Input
Amino acid sequence: MSNVKVAPSLLSADPANLAADVISVKDAGADLLHLDIMDGHFVPNLTYGPQVAESLTRFGVPLDVHLMVDNPERIVPLFLPYASYLTVHVEAAPHLHRILQSIKDRGVKAGVALNPATPPETISYVTDLVDLVVVMAVNPGWGGQKCLTGMERKVRAVKGIALSSGRDIDIEVDGGVTHENAGLFVSAGATILVSGSYLFKAPDRRNAIIALRESTA
Ligand code: DX5
Ligand code: ZN
Output
């Protein structure tokens, strides 16, 4: 049995039936709820505010909040009370040490996300402050996109950097994850898989989560 965690992306849930979808993935074995926050600037799309995060805490599944926003230093404080993991994009955060420290100071796990074209070495100087690296396998903005090729190579490179830091750093893959590519990512070093469209479209969500966890390269 693999230890990989599965984090359903609520972007693929039915917004008019969010509670039912959250209960369904919780019952299916979800480890985290992945909440995609989009600001209409860093990415063209818009999603939820902190009230939705607050409300989702009642289900008792830790929130993995992925901020796809410009000026994340303004948005981070809004989500800190509700997040278990709070992730900012390196491309949007020029003062990365400062913002990661502000997350850790609140006892929340600090994440850094890398767009597909961003090199893995960008995390080298912040490994002492990072608990999670999110390797984007699609350009962020929408669910349901196809995973770009070669992203397992980046996962492997991030894994190498994490290992040489000597710290326990989770590596999450986000975008286009399915039972067909999950094994490749896990064997490259991924410890958390985000799943949106694959999981929410699956006829049996429990089986889909098992398929993600057990898939081999
Ligand atoms: C993309 C989001 C992802 C996405 C995942 O901008 O960050 O979390 O919703 O959904 P799928 O699994 O459908 O790519
Ligand atoms: Zn995401």
In short: The first strand starts at residue 5 and ends at 8.
